[in-house]
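ok so for the tutorial part 2 we go from a plain amino acid sequence to predicted structure tokens. step 1 is just haveing the sequence, like this:
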Amino acid sequence: MEERWIKRYANRKMYDVENSRYVSLGDLAEIIQSGDSIRVTDKSGKEDYTAQVLRQIIMDQSRQSDESTVTALHEWIRVGGSFLDQRWDELRSGMEDWFRDRKSRLLKGLSRDDFEALKKKVDQLEKKVEDLDA
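step 2 — the prediction. this is what the tokens look like for a chain of 134 residues:
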């Protein structure tokens, strides 16, 4: 996962430093959905606008969704954002633990020979794909 630096100018235009182009909120949402993170600062890099821009993206996306989002936003305000942030962190941590456990269980029963055989098959598949591309 990569962090992309976005400069936000006084006129509210945003500039993707890595790709040398101006970006919209929709472009930033796509960057995040692809797995990267963003860091939005003023043009000097001193003032951080990341949280503000992320909220704008959420609001922009909620305008495009159905009425159920309004209900969810009301609930979020009622219980407080920090409460939901904590629940989200717990959910993410639980998912990471679950994946780690599944990976451990999967790998526990495999021997070195199993890994070597699997690697050989992967190498053969990669060769076939390369041959198809050629």
